[in-house]
UniProtKB/TrEMBL annotation:
Classification via Pfam families: Glyco_hydro_10
InterPro entries, alphabetized: GH, GH10, GH10_dom
Keywords, alphabetical: Carbohydrate metabolism, Glycosidase, Hydrolase, Polysaccharide degradation
Protein name: Putative carbohydrate-active enzyme
SUPFAM superfamilies: (Trans)glycosidases
Molecular-function GO term, any one: hydrolase activity, hydrolyzing O-glycosyl compounds
GO biological process terms, semicolon-separated: polysaccharide catabolic process
Record domain GH10: where: 32-371
């Protein structure tokens, strides 16, 4: 009997035993189940696959090696958000927002370049993790809020500054996409309140993409990114249709679907949202995927039964996505997971990643890879 067949028989035996217990089963190593990596699986569907990164994972040999083996794209978890890239002292002395990448951002770009990773930029215009002083006179947190025209000028300087700094540092060719605006819509279809909106007005969104289109190189696709997108799909679809210049040319290339999901969420509801957004004709990317155990209001413990449920969820979700991409119904050229190990996840209490804290594979990994035998299904299914 071949080695993989023996492993399969033993694994099925363990599944039967696990049915009588809540304890977790350690799954076979990925190399024992398949000779494919995540990169291989997504490449079969014409897609890149990525993860978010920080120095916490790039500086550790075990996590760095896993990422290099499994992924080919990355997004900085925090280091390119406005709080991290805006230099207050230089902004005050120059009278305009000054973009300056910190040492972590530069080290992460260096790591990506060294390991032949493509990168997504995240993010420029956001209601969160943006310093309040950016909106005030003299860039002073005690100053009064500036007016519309000044804020438009600052928005343009911020967006221009990002692309100019990437070019100056020699890393702009790494980037294939950038989240220009993040999380501007609410689930009820209303526009989110923010300093950007209060000072500039509802058209701040149009100006953000107008400036990004003006300064971004053609090689970088411009994205709107949001969460709970399955519930906002109609609002987002209507909004992106307004992002056109005077000649009717679209200022936006794609929609980022964060896909922070839970096993209590309905897969079909999510895929229906994908279908609505696909009708815009824009590219779609899953940008921050993780699938937590349970629901937002209450995490489930990571018992074997719950981890199997997570594996089945991932199998059905990516089965639906791959089918749509392969059929040409969805334009999607990349998927990014918001981490890879439960030990480093921002939602650690929900055990949402593909590998556990020991970097061992979970049912979720095999679900994404469409290996049903190890994705948490009963042997008879």
């Amino acid at each position: 009997m071949k080695r993989k067949s023996i492993i399969s028989v033993l694994f099925i035996f363990l599944l039967v035993l696990a049915g009588c217990s809540s304890s977790k089963v350690k799954l076979p190593a990925q190399s024992e189940v398949t000779d494919k990596t995540l990169k291989d699986v997504f490449a079969e569907h014409g897609m890149k696959v990525g993860t978010c990164i920080s120095s916490q994972v790039t500086k550790k040999t075990a996590t760095s090696d896993l990422m290099v083996t499994q992924f080919c794209s990355c997004t900085m978890e925090n280091a390119m958000k406005p709080d991290y890239i805006l230099d207050q002292a230089q902004s005050r002395s120059s009278g305009k927002p000054i973009v300056k990448f910190n040492s972590e951002a530069l080290s992460l770009m260096s790591w990506a370049k060294k390991n032949s990773f493509s990168m997504r930029g995240h993010t420029m215009i956001w209601h969160s993790q943006t310093p309040d002083w950016l909106f005030r006179e003299d860039f002073d947190p005690r100053g009064s809020y500036v007016g519309r025209e000044e804020m438009l000028s600052r928005m343009e300087a911020l967006i221009r500054g990002v692309f100019e700094e990437l070019k100056a540092q020699g890393y702009i060719d790494l980037f294939y996409a950038y989240d220009v605006v993040n999380e501007a819509w609410m689930e009820d279809g209303s526009m989110r309140d923010s300093n950007w909106r209060r000072i500039i007005g509802d058209d701040y969104l149009w100006y953000a993409f107008y400036y990004a289109d003006k300064y971004a190189p053609e090689t970088i696709d411009l994205y709107y990114n949001d969460y709970n997108e399955q519930y906002k799909a109609d609002s987002i679809a209507a909004f992106v249709d307004t992002l056109k210049d005077d000649d009717g040319r679209s200022l936006i290339d794609g929609i980022g679907l964060q896909a922070h999901l839970f096993t209590a969420d309905d897969v079909n509801t999510y895929l229906e949202g994908v279908d609505i957004l696909a009708e815009t004709g824009l590219k779609l990317e899953l940008t921050e995927v993780d699938v937590g155990l349970g629901k937002y209001e209450g995490a489930l413990t990571n018992t074997d039964a719950n981890l199997k449920m997570q594996g089945r969820y991932c199998y059905e979700l990516f089965q639906g996505l791959f089918e749509r991409v392969d059929a040409g119904k969805v334009r999607m050229d990349a998927v990014t997971f918001w981490g890879f190990s439960d030990g480093f996840s921002w939602r650690r209490e929900y055990s949402p990643q593909l590998y556990d804290s020991d970097l061992d594979p979970k049912y979720a990994l095999y679900g994404v890879m469409q290996i049903k035998e190890y994705a948490g299904y009963d042997p008879a299914e």
